[in-house]
């Protein structure tokens, strides 16, 4: 594993990790994290390190997240441009793109803008319509009997009007149980989920505010899913309340060359809840796409 500080065309520096050896003979896989301003490369690193013997696996903190530069704009357009700059930095013409949760939104946008760069697409627990998704997440956080939250604070988080970093940390902490599956013993999970505020001390409310006040109301790719022609694997946990199964079914029905994998014991991250089954299913997909 090697760590790099990659300077982009606008001067922003991203904290990037290359897992395994960086042989140019290996196909490239870039895995994007979720939760802008909260999640970091930690989750995709833990989830996809198993592929490092077969791929050059790149994970990184997106701009505005982790220890990468806090340099706006925090727009989907800028974030997908950053993905393509990381691809170019790695020296690959084509690659496999993986996105979980908010990283799935960016992966869909990337596929529609730069489809000629993709070998395959893997989407984990995500949605295709921002307004419905964020309103559902707010509804669940306010009505679930699994948690007790401050309604005003949750409204601030899901509409992108958080007061400050502490407000963001408090909002995530009080609803973290919604990311978990009730069928999985926390002690059996592969790692502590960064989106549940376990491993991420760098909290950036400004990034979250931009994502959910500006990007999400404008994000709706439902009518364009049919234009994505690359092999696609859509993964979702049966017990995911934030991005429920129906959202992944909608994506799978829309993308012509897609497969749906539902993990019956999992919540928001099957790679964490059912790691062995998850890894096997990803390998099967990559093999079917003739990438192994």
Automatic annotation (TrEMBL):
Q: Which GO terms describe its cellular component?
A: membrane
One Gene Ontology term of the biological-process aspect is: proteolysis
Question: Which SUPFAM superfamilies does the annotation name?
Answer: alpha/beta-Hydrolases
Signal sequence, renumbered to the chain: none
- InterPro entries, per database record: AB_hydrolase_1, AB_hydrolase_fold, AB_hydrolase_sf, Peptidase_S33
Query: Recorded GO terms, molecular function?
Result: peptidase activity
Q: Output the Pfam families linked to this UniProt entry.
A: Abhydrolase_1 (PF00561)
**Keywords carried by this UniProt record:** Hydrolase
Q: Which residues form the AB hydrolase-1 domain?
A: 27-270
Tell me the PANTHER family matching this sequence: AB HYDROLASE SUPERFAMILY PROTEIN YCLE, MONOACYLGLYCEROL LIPASE
Which protein family is named in the record?
Belongs to the peptidase S33 family.
Name the record gives this protein: AB hydrolase-1 domain-containing protein
């Amino acid at each position: 594993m090697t760590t790099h500080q990659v300077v982009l065309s606008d001067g922003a520096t991203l904290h990037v990790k290359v897992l395994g050896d960086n042989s140019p003979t290996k196909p490239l896989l870039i895995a994007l994290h979720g939760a802008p301003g909260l999640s970091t490369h930690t989750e995709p690193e833990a989830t996809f390190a198993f592929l490092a013997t077969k791929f050059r696996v790149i994970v990184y903190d997106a701009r505005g997240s982790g220890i990468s530069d806090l340099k706006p704009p925090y727009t989907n357009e800028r974030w997908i441009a950053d993905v393509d700059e990381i691809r170019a930095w790695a020296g690959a013409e084509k690659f496999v793109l993986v996105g979980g949760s908010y990283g799935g939104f960016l992966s869909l946008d990337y596929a529609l803008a730069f489809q000629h760069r993709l070998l395959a697409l893997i989407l984990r627990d995500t949605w295709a319509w921002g307004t419905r998704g964020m309103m559902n997440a707010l509804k669940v956080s306010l009505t679930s009997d699994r948690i007790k939250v401050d309604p005003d604070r949750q409204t601030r988080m899901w509409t992108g009007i958080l007061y400050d970093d502490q407000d963001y940390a408090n909002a995530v902490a009080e609803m973290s149980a919604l990311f978990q599956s009730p069928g999985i013993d926390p002690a059996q999970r592969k790692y502590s989920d960064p989106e549940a505020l376990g491993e991420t001390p760098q909290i950036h409310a400004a990034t979250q505010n931009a994502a959910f006040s500006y990007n999400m109301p404008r994000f709706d790719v439902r009518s364009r899913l049919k234009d994505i022609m690359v092999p696609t694997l859509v993964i979702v946990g049966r017990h995911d309340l934030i991005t429920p199964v129906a959202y992944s079914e909608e994506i799978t029905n829309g993308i012509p060359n897609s497969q749906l994998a539902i993990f019956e014991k999992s919540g928001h991250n099957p790679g964490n809840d059912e790691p062995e089954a998850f890894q096997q299913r990803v390998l099967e997909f990559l093999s079917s796409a003739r990438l192994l």
